[in-house]
Amino acid sequence: MFNISINTKMKNYLFSIYLLFSVPSALIAQQDSIMLDKIYEESLYRGEAYTNLHYLTKKIGHRIAGSAQAEEAVNWSKGLMEKLPFDRVYLQEVTVPYWDRGEKEVAKIVGSNESLAVLALGGSVATPKDGITAEVLEIENLSDLEKHGENVAGKIVFVNKPWDESIVETGVAYGLNSSQRSRGPSQAAKFGAVAYFFRSLSSSPDDAYPHTGGTGYTKGIDSIPAAAISAVSATKLSTTLKANPKLKVYFKQNSAWKGLVETHNVIAEWKGTDKPTDIITIGGHIDSWDVGEGAHDNGTGTMGTLDAMRTLMVLGYKPKHSIRLVFYMNEENGVQGAIKYGEEASQKKEHIVAAIESDAGGFAPRGFDIKASKEKVSWIQNNWKPLFEQKFWVSRFLEGSPGVDSGVWGRQFPNTIMFNFRPDPHRYFDLHHTEKDVFEAVDRRELQSGVAAIASLLYLLDQHMEEIQ
Amino acid sequence: MFNISINTKMKNYLFSIYLLFSVPSALIAQQDSIMLDKIYEESLYRGEAYTNLHYLTKKIGHRIAGSAQAEEAVNWSKGLMEKLPFDRVYLQEVTVPYWDRGEKEVAKIVGSNESLAVLALGGSVATPKDGITAEVLEIENLSDLEKHGENVAGKIVFVNKPWDESIVETGVAYGLNSSQRSRGPSQAAKFGAVAYFFRSLSSSPDDAYPHTGGTGYTKGIDSIPAAAISAVSATKLSTTLKANPKLKVYFKQNSAWKGLVETHNVIAEWKGTDKPTDIITIGGHIDSWDVGEGAHDNGTGTMGTLDAMRTLMVLGYKPKHSIRLVFYMNEENGVQGAIKYGEEASQKKEHIVAAIESDAGGFAPRGFDIKASKEKVSWIQNNWKPLFEQKFWVSRFLEGSPGVDSGVWGRQFPNTIMFNFRPDPHRYFDLHHTEKDVFEAVDRRELQSGVAAIASLLYLLDQHMEEIQ
Known about the structure:
Two copies of one chain form a homodimer. Chain A is of the alpha/beta class and about 475 residues long. Chain A has 14 helices and 15 strands. Chain A has two domains: about 10-100 and about 260-465, Aminopeptidase; about 100-255, Glucose Oxidase, domain 1 (3-Layer(bba) Sandwich), CATH 3.50.30.30. In chain A, the strands form two sheets. The first copy, chain A, has an eight-stranded mixed β-sheet, with helices on both faces. A seven-stranded mixed β-sheet of chain A has the order 2-8-4-5-6-7-3. The two termini of chain A are about 35 Å apart.
């Protein structure tokens, strides 16, 4: 019936699923449970997210928006979608600012052989060509700048706020420190700092790798070069500063914005049978930072949501609502893909009833954060959680925030129910935005178990969207 | 107050905890929540399970019961316990049969260069000194032996039942196949087989490592040599057999039982203030298989339960009930440690009110299986799950089986409430009983998060044991 290979075992399923969709409503819960079994069986045995992720990470590699690799990922993804029985696969034009890291950054304590592991923050300007040599002012919070006043001028401001290791939900710990990354350089420059070092947002104090991430500059204030420094190097620098507060650090990087680049979101549509103009959007961002391989952030999210749709297709499912897969460009440094998606959908007055985003890694699936009224969240907990909890170890269905991309375009769609896929949070911020975020850090069973959870949610949403209340 | 180092931050806690235990009962739930915060903070910042695990795995290594390493682990563990303010630390004598693998096993397809990755099953006899060369009969289930009848004689029986990859709870998939490991050699020998190959109990079909595990022989039937064959080698052998059913395999191993050895359980007791004769037993097995480093099985269980107790101690907690930490010897091939523990406790008519066991790895904690009445499980779900679920991502409190050791001694204590710690199940059976079960496969945050979950449960049990109904 459609253009994908189906083995014999699957043919038997197709028949049983045909039966499944023709039985009376009293058996719906049992039908759902049987369908979830099929989904898990398909994903765990024959899932393709892991092998696709291998190609994305090893053949294409990291892919910052605007780079040649990002566009290669766009075209290759489009090709993957075209092999599946979508009704339409297309690119949506997105203009992104392209930032290039340039040569490897250099930082060292002057007069010693101590190298500091640093990585330019995304969006940072370069140092002067010959680098900067300056004293260092260590603070824990940006708010400490005030009290140092004139003492800041001419120095490298070094924000060394430790990660709160006690928080199991590592995303919360990330949130506690991340605003100092985005706002730090301009705050420090206001006081005359010449550069900005930011202790990496890593969940491990023993982490030798710097974690990059976006920063920005406030108009009217000098843009100063900014870099993340690894937890280990931050501790080393802090210790050395205690012994010698007048030490100087040499710092050089030549990152720069390189102008605007035309690139794309990748979109595939699977038309609904009953309500074709009611759209469920699913996806994640296809770009990554320019280090590592963008495996957990966000190769798993894109390859996972694509494989969730493949899973339903190969099971012979026909959606009631239209399901639209979106690979957003530029989540990491500008969110231009999500902005464009929202603008177009809004102009067309589209009816996006629900959204699922995956952008928190490919670890063992734990559940979904839900942006909806308390009543709706409660309905989902009562009706859907029992289908997942005991058998599939997915039990977290809590009110929460949408993913970054859905959150951005969702400003124009305030009534859309949004689901943010939540894999286990323990390991994510050891890898996030670093050289360590590679294919080898992804476990196949964990990834495909997550794909099954996402496909199951998508199925339930499509079947029961109108019942949620 | 006691013999462990306490930093300044902890001193502040001790005072707040002193206050905590002197407030009226209306605030109990809030007290519990605050105590759990302290426990997680201590474990995630200053937990010692991970560093102790490093010593156990790297300095002592694997430690099959009866080996010198197992006894080294016993004595080293006793030393660890003696550094903490237990009231009593002692060894309990256990006699175990010692099985030795001998030289590296050899298996190859005769006339080819194809080596097969095999590992003697624990308890297996040796092949004749010069090995066995025989044809191979591949079956999927032991029950297939009957229909092959006389055709079995003189052959190597090769049970190639694939792992059910669709089951998220991998322990269930393990259970579906494991009886063929324990009963297989004698069943095959009854039909005249000369050796037994068993497809490894691995959750990955791409696994190149064989997984060992215990087997046994039925009295009155010849004991034939038995080995696990890796999933990859099993598939290779199966494919080659299809092309050439008459192929012969050469197989040699010289494993053997080496008689009885006197060894020990390691036990530490922390006396209760209110009900010193009511005992909560906590622990896991200290032995491992003789490959890899016994990291997830069960270095994490022993070092984790010890660290859970250290956590409560360092927080200044004083238990109401006596808490007894037990490191059981010989869980892997004989369960003699648990048998001895049960016998002695039973002879002394001890009152063991509850038990916690950790023997399912050191992955992200998901919850506890509970052996208790439905009513009690339900009470625990209602009262304790909310303390863990949202903040600490621990949400699985289901009726279930105890761990192997508690299950064994628990036959004499049918009324003891038993908790079986459940970490995430996705990765365990990729590593279990193989060369891959090493320290590097353990993540510090996941392990210490599990320690905190166990310490929290232990605290709640001690505080509210008598309220469970």
